[in-house]
Design brief:
Helix content: 25-40%
Mean pLDDT: 94
Order of helices and strands: HEEHEEEEHEHHEEHEEHHEEEHHHHH
Shape: globular
Number of strands: 14
Number of helices: 13
Structural class: alpha+beta
Length: about 450
């Protein structure tokens, strides 16, 4: 923010302020207060925010005391909230202990720590997310499957229509609100397209600073849900919301800039791939299977990794090849980048970006080599990461390299949360079990 916060609040006639913290799941937690109190109060919240699962359960035996955190608003993130009745703004806060040390299990801090490693080496990562999501009918009873919404024609979509403008036009009123909300909140959303699923859309973001883009994706999810609710439907970022439909991804385009020269380290003077580019891809190939719980955080996430349904099943790389986990788009030397296609849209954007950059960083520092490029369909090749969430979590916890970068406390907390969520999932009896086992076994 270029002007004094008090001046900004007054000029925008703000009555209420939302002080936001992204928790481990990427859910917006925080406080709501009158604008007159925002600048004067000492903002605090319990540290246990970061040990809570998506189910509401807490990880046991993590903190001896549930201490208060000091919340420090990042004024650069202050934005108007366009869907409220009263003039309201939101601002994202960082979390500190009373001695001024950051809370290292905070997702925003995890990303900051990874970015600091790049800065120490004179490097600056650049990312551009692509976020997929579904619009669906309101689903009040979770026992019933999701259904595509009714568009302006009065009929639901019965099949996906990739890149169809007519299919997008079915939801023009919602899309217009999404773009209006994004403009009001300074979210740099670029083009929108219809994806392969019924009611599935994708928004592309312009490339930029990883922390800023993580903030924007975090806020964008709220924008889309609010716009959908305004029109009587739901928006979901579940990785696999509907059977037999493609899942939703958070594709991450990544490049790295040399701070001193301002040049992309992935290309040389002739426009050819550099050793750094090979090493970055090699790091993703080597460590992404160990970081998989960060890209697939829930049991539902692993349903997305299905052969021939638009999601990768391995970490092979290829040029302009959407069947691989790591795609190199056709580009000039300045824009040479690698697209990580593994993450689902259900991920916490801070943790997904941090983990992807961590894998690439390990490749750079360990001088790893990429594997052979895949020319044909990677779906014809064996999987190179697990579809078993428990196995993925074991690999994550036992990864010394990732633990060193992400922090031991964070890894232990994250693993504890994921084990709690898995336990609650296995307490639920599914329709499949009643359909095929009830009277047959």
């Amino acid at each position: 923010m270029s002007i004094e916060p008090a001046t900004w609040l007054k000029e925008n006639r703000i009555d209420e302020v939302e002080l936001l913290i992204p928790d481990i799941a990427g859910v917006a937690c925080g406080k709501f207060m009158p604008a007159s109190k925002f600048l004067d109060l000492d903002h605090r919240l319990p540290e246990s925010i970061f040990i809570q699962a998506i189910t509401g359960d807490y990880v046991d035996d993590v903190f001896e005391l549930d201490r208060d955190m000091v919340l420090q608003p990042d004024m650069a993130t202050m934005r108007r909230v366009p869907w409220t009745d009263e003039p309201t703004c939101c601002v994202i806060a960082d979390c500190y202990r009373h001695d001024g040390t950051p809370i290292d299990i905070s997702p925003r801090q995890v990303l900051k720590n990874v970015l600091a490693l790049y800065t120490q080496r004179g490097l600056r990562p650049v990312v551009a997310p692509e976020v997929e999501f579904y619009l669906v009918k309101k689903n009040i009873d979770p026992d019933y499957p999701l259904e595509p919404p009714i568009g302006r024609s009065g009929r639901p979509e019965v099949a996906g229509k990739p890149y169809s403008i007519d299919a997008v036009n079915e939801f023009d009123p919602i899309i217009e609100d999404i773009y209006d909300y994004c403009e009001a909140m300074d979210i740099d959303a670029d083009s929108l397209s219809h994806e392969a699923g019924a009611g599935q859309l994708e928004i592309n973001f312009n490339h930029g600073d990883p922390l800023s883009l993580a903030d924007q994706v975090f806020l964008f999810k709220r924008v889309v849900r609010e716009a959908a609710l305004k029109h009587g439907i739901y928006a979901t970022f579940m990785a696999k919301p509907m059977a037999k439909e493609p899942g939703s991804a958070l594709h991450l385009h990544q490049s790295v800039i040399d701070i001193a020269t301002g040049k992309n380290i992935f290309s040389d003077e002739r426009g050819e791939d550099t050793a750094a580019f090979s090493a970055f891809i090699g790091g993703l190939q080597r460590y992404l299977p160990e970081a998989l719980p960060m890209f697939g955080p829930y049991v539902n996430s692993y349903r997305r990794f299905t052969r021939f349904l638009m999601a990768p099943i391995n970490v092979h790389w290829g040029r302009d090849n959407r069947t691989v986990g790591l795609r190199v788009p056709i580009s000039d030397a300045k824009n040479r980048r690698i697209e990580n296609r593994v993450a689902g849209s259900d991920t916490n954007p801070y943790l997904a970006i941090a983990s992807s950059l961590a894998c690439g960083y390990l490749g750079l520092t360990e001088n790893l080599k990429r594997g052979e490029m895949v020319e044909g369909s990677a779906y014809d090749l064996p999987p190179s990461f697990t579809r078993d969430p428990d196995h993925a979590l074991d690999l994550f916890v036992n990864s010394k390299a990732l633990t060193r970068i992400l922090g031991e406390d964070f890894v232990n907390v994250y693993a504890g949360i994921k084990r709690i969520e898995a336990e609650t999932f296995f307490q639920v009896i599914s329709p499949w079990e009643r359909e095929y086992l009830l009277l047959n076994v």
